[in-house]
Prior knowledge:
Layout: H1 2-18, E1 21-29, E2 38-46, E3 52-59, E4 64-73, E5 76-81, E6 85-87, E7 91-95, E8 101-105, E9 116-123, E10 128-137
Parallel strand pairs: 1-10
Antiparallel strand pairs: 1-2, 2-7, 2-8, 3-6, 3-9, 4-5, 4-8, 9-10
Amino acid sequence: MLNKKIFILSLLSLSLSATEMEINNAYIKQTPPNSKNTAIFLTLTNKSEKEIALIDAKSDLSEKIELHTHIHKDKKMSMIQIPKITISPNSTTELKPGSFHIMLFDLKNPVNAETKANLTLYFDNNTSLKIEQIPSKKL
Length: 139
C-alpha cells in the first residue's frame, strides 16, 4: 500500500511540474517543395520560481531535431546548434526567426498549408509537454 501511495505522489509531482511551463503561439515554417529542413517557433512561459531549460524535442515530421539560435560573427549571421534553451523564473522566451528555434532536418514530407504536426518538448526538470496539431505558417 505504501509503494502505491509513493507512486501516486510521484505522478502528481510530475503533473504539477509540467504545468510550470506554458506553450503558446506554436507554428511550423512552411517549406518550398524540395526543402528537407524547417523550423518550429513558439513561446515558452516559465511560471515557476526556478530556471527551467528546454533540452530536447521530438516531432512526427522528422527524426532529426536540434535546438538552434543565431549568432553574429564577422559581420555575418550564422545558425548554430545549442544544448539547451533556458527560460528564467517567471518569464517568457520566444522562439522566433533570427533567434532561438527548433530545427527539423530530413523532413518526411514537405510542410505546406495543410500540414499539422505533433511535438513533444523535454525539459531539464524531468518533465515533458506534448503539443498536438501545430499549424504551419508561410514566412
